[in-house]
Amino acid sequence: MSRFFSQHGRTGSCAAALLITTSLLLGGCKAGGEEAKAKAPEEQKVSDAVPVEVAKAVHRAIAASYAGTAALEARAESQVVAKTSGVALAVLVEEGQQVSAGQALVRLDPDRARLSVAQSEAQMRKLENSYHRAEKLVQQQLVSAADVDQLRYDLENARAQYRMATLELSYTTVVAPIAGVVASRDIKPGNFVQINSPIIRIVDSSRLEATLNVPEREIAKLKPGQAVGLAVDALPGKPFTGTVDRVAPVVDNGTGTFRVVASFSGGGDLQPGMFGRLSINYDQRADALVVPRSALLEDGGEPAVYVVRDGKAQRATLKLGYDDAGWIEVREGLKSGDEVVIAGKAALREGSAVQVIGQEKKVAAAAQAPAAGATKQ
Predict the structure, then answer these.
(1) Structure confidence by residue, pLDDT tens digits, 161-188
(2) Is 373 helix (H, G, I), strand (E, B) or coil?
(3) Which residue in 238, 254, 248, 265 sits closest to 212, CA to CA?
């Protein structure tokens, strides 16, 4: 009897232990399932967030400018032509040579011109003697006053012909009309030169100009004396500065533009014919609220950006000001420190959850710092 009851007691104890273990296991599975269900919405929320890059609205100086492109031209340029015909006996300059105004460039054969001068001079001397004799004879009433007048007119004509022949002789020496550099030479010794044929081109590159055709809406903003920045494709990374030299007072009816001529110092790296990009600053704000231009939405509506607030994207309509070097001034719609989306805008809508790229590292670093301090204590 006692043996039976002892075995039954052991069996009951084992059953009770098994029941308790099963209950604990079931309870643990239930708790784990509830915890997984609780975590699921948070993980889903993180996975739905759109990754974006942001930049803060800051205060900085910004300038208002007009930009355009133009080729540089020499302010003074001359195509030298032969004023008389003849054989070139000597060419006195080479391409690239610096010349001064009045310097001899080419000498033509002067023989024919010299003979013409001698002929006209002889005719002039003959008429001078005849006129002087007639003046004496008219006092003795041996020559009429009409004959004397005719001789005087003939003498004046002969003198003019002599001066013309002398001028033609001077044309046999071709001289430089301006100071500058010989850009091209289209003549060699021994060539026969026709009258008015171009033979040498001289360029004065000490002063260069660039002409812009500016839309009429800018006519009240651009004035002579304003600073001009210049970047030349042939000299990357090397900026140049100049000034607005002339502004046309009228607008062209056909194109709706007016001419603005900017002037630059030459004689160095800048050369005529170079293609440049010009920027004319006509106003500047020393402390303007600006954002990167890449933050603007390009949806065809009013100027707007997405601002990150409480982990969500909110559309903010802006009133813009000046645009300069990738920055754009914000007159209304933002305050300093606002974070605007500069990358990832295409996937955003009003109220979209966002995940700022790079923010996770900052949060992790901030979380690790107190933990490290607690371990140290």
Answers:
(1) 999 999 999 999 999 999 999 999 999 9
(2) helix
(3) 248
